[in-house]
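pinned: reference chain
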Amino acid sequence: MDRRAFIAMTLAAAGLPIALRAQQKAMPVIGLLGPGSTNPPGPAPAAWRQALSEAGYVENQSVAIEYRWAEGRYNQLPALAADLVDRNVDVIAAFTTPAALAAKRATSTIPIVFVIGEDPVESGLVASFPRPDGNLTGFGRLNVELLGTSSNCCPSLFPRPG
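pinned: its C-alpha cells
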C-alpha cells in the first residue's frame, strides 16, 4: 500500500466525507497540527493535500486547511489544538503523539486522525485496538508494520525497531 492510499484510507476511516457534507459551512475546514515548522521536512502535509485532491477536495476551493505548527516548542501544542477547536474545524489531523495527545485533550467531539510512530494504545490515544472509543482514529508504527509499508516511507515517523 503506498503512502497516498494509506493517508486516503485514514481520512475515510475518520468519516471525513460524511463530516464535510454534514456541515453547514460554506467550505469544510481541516486543522493540521504538528510539532514542526511551517515548512516541515517530512512528506505528511503534501501527502495529505494529494490524498484530498484525489478524493475531489482542492485546498482553498472545496476545502480549507488551517495549519498549526509548534515550531519545535512542544509546550505550544495544547494552545494550538485549542485554537483549532475554537475555530470549529471539521477534523483535526495530528502528526506525532504529542500533537495527537494535545488534540485529544482539547476536544472529545471533533474527529481526530493521527499518524504516530508508536503504539496508540500504549501512548493513551485509544483504549484498545478492537474498541478505540472516543473521537480518534489513525495509524501508529504497529499498523505500518502490519501493512508492510516500506521503511523509506516516513523514517522519522515510523522508525524501524532494533
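why pinned: The radius of gyration is 15 Å. The longest strand covers residues 29-34.
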